[in-house]
Amino acid sequence: MVGLGLAIVMLAYRVVSDSQAERRSLEDSARKQLLYDTEFIARSLDAVLRVADSAIDARAESLASGTTAGRKGLADIAIQVPEALNAYLLGLSGEVEASAWARSAPSLALPEGVLDRLRLSGGGAAAVASAPAEGGDCLAELKLLPGPGRVVAVLFGPNVLEGKTFLIKASGEEQASVLDQQGRLLERMTPSPPGARRPASRMIASESSLGSRALLVRMSMDLAPALAGWAKDFLWQTFLSLALLALSGGLLAYSLISRREAAKSQTLEKELQARELLFHEINHRVKNNLSVVQSLISLGARRAKEEPESAEATLMAASERIRSMTMLHEQLYKRRSLESVELGAYFEDLTEAISESYSTDGRVRIEVESGERILVDLNEAVPIALIVTELVTNSCKYAFPAGARGRIVVAAKAIEAIGLELRVEDDGCWTEESAPIEGFGTVLISSLVEQLGARLERSLGSAGHGMKVGLWIPDRPK
User: Fold this and answer.
1) Is 420 helix (H, G, I), strand (E, B) or coil?
2) φ/ψ bin of 122: left (φ > 0), alpha (ψ from -120 to 50), beta (otherwise)
3) CA atoms 372, 376, 381, 387: torsion sign
4) Nearest 5 degrees, angle CA 175-CA 178-CA 181?
5) What are the angstrom distances between the C-alpha of 314 and each of 67, 296, 299, 347?
6) How many CA atoms lie within 13 A of 17 on its CB side?
7) What pLDDT is stored for residue 196 in this prediction?
8) Distance (Å, rounded) from C-alpha 290 to C-alpha 279?
9) Residues 418, 424: contact at Cβ < 8 Å?
10) According to CATH, where is 3.30.565.10 located in the chain?
């Protein structure tokens, strides 16, 4: 079912991809056609300007003489270049001295500096100028005459562009323009047929330079007509693709529902197995911890039997040890885990409880230093808890006699590739006699250290000021 749905999706994707590829092909063809047409117009216009230039050269001497016969040569130039609107003879400052065809007060406004550059170069030039008598903007082919510096200007209107594009104009080509060196434009707009509906425009443009003059021919095209047929086909292809996708979606939804039901069944079965394993794990943990409690009580009872006067202290110490294990389970409950305990949070709770039990009343501050989050497996957490409990209670009982003040620090640090480092330090007053080295707690610590495969070191400060106990627990293979 899923395979069929995916096949339908791939088919819809293929339809859309082919459609987009066709569109790109149509756009590329339109761009190539526009570039071809632009280059064709540029070559054609260049040829017209060359003809005008040649016509001026043929009559340059007679025009330069300033005689009436010479001026009649302007009409010959205009006749020889049929695309021309007119031909002017310009004076030294650009004023119109004569016109091939009679005009009322003819004038020609050329871009600034064109005549100066023309006289410096001594050749010809072309520019977009304004000739009100000829109807507005026009393209002027300028040629410097020998002698006093007169200039002949052959004028072409915007129709020179339309005349070149009439036969080759592709659908959508709407504007042709000539751009001169000064950035002025001679434009020819091609209006749409009357009553024609214009689709949404997406204009593209192309430029081509004239070989003989510093001019650019620019044409623009609206891609909408070129893509009109494709757009109609695309609507049907889109509808077909949507129908295929809808069918595919229905098949996939049915398949997903079936898979979900099967997954629910598997999940319930796995949860049942997990609960059974959890039940066995809890029983195992409880059994192990009860065994530890039993051992602590048995050892405490043996000591109370041997030393009846210490029975109360023995029971209190056993209570503290059992409570340290209880707090471990509280941490497990908080973390919703049966696997590991976070040492920093556990030590905070443990030291607070010990401080309350021994009523330090703020005389002895118990601080926990654990800048990083350290997780310890429960199998290691129980002996660590009993060791830390024993060390902290020893400091509370023996290091601060007669209301002395001070502090106890419990620190944990994970060392990469080595293991776990625990420290219990105080700044109390110790003596060789007050340090418990043969009591039940010391025996218990030694047993737990051995169980962890760890190393424990004690050191007294100078003159018995403060004790440092370090415990290094190596990493165990997982």
Assistant:
1) strand
2) left
3) negative
4) 145
5) 141, 10, 9, 23
6) 6
7) 47
8) 16
9) no
10) 307-474
Instruction: Give the model's pLDDT for residue 398.
Output: 82
Query: Residue 422: which of 463, 452, 379, 378 has the closest Cα?
Result: 452
Separation between Cα atoms, residue 126 and residue 114, nearest integer Å = 9
Other CB atoms within a 10 A radius of the CB of residue 284 amount to 11
Terminal CA-to-CA distance of the chain, rounded, Å? 44
At 443-455, the pLDDT tens digits run 888 888 998 889 9
**Which tokens sit at 157?**
């209107």
Q: Return the half-sphere exposure (C-beta side, CA atoms, 13 A cut-off) of residue 261.
A: 5
* Cβ atoms 426, 395 nearer than 8 A: yes
What b/e sequence results for 230-253 when a residue is b if at least 16 CB atoms lie within 10 Å of its CB, and e otherwise? Answer: beeebeebeeebeebbeebeebbe
Tell me if residue 86 falls in helix, strand or coil. strand
Give the closest residue to 368 by CA, choosing from 330, 413, 331: 413
Identify the helix (H) or strand (E) that includes residue 144.
strand 136-144
Q: Which fold has domain 307-474?
A: Heat Shock Protein 90 (3.30.565)
Other CB atoms within a 10 A radius of the CB of residue 116 amount to 9
Q: Name residues whose C-beta falls within 8 Å of residue 98's C-beta, 6 or more positions apart in sequence.
A: 71, 74, 88, 89
464 DSSP 8-state letter? G
All residues at 6 or more sequence positions from 248 whose CB lies less than 8 Å from its CB, including other chains: 5, 6, 8, 9, 12
Instruction: Please provide the size of the chain in residues.
Output: 478
Task: Quote the pLDDT of residue 170.
Answer: 47
| Res 440: pLDDT | 72
Phi and psi at residue 421, to the nearest 5° = -110, 125
Residue 325 CB: number of other CB atoms within 10 A? 18
What gap in Å lies between CA 187 and CA 158, rounded to an integer?
6
Place of tokens 């007050």: 434
Asked whether residue 470 carries a pLDDT value surpassing 80, the answer given is yes
SS (H, E, C) 240-291: HHHHHHHHHHHHHHHHHHHHHHHHHHHHHHHHHHHHHHHHHHHHHHHHHHHH
Closest by alpha carbon to 382, among 463, 299, 287, 303?
287
Q: What is the mean pLDDT of residues 278-295?
A: 57
User: Shortest CA distance to 205 belongs to which of 218, 195, 223, 188?
Assistant: 218
CA 155 to chain centre: 57
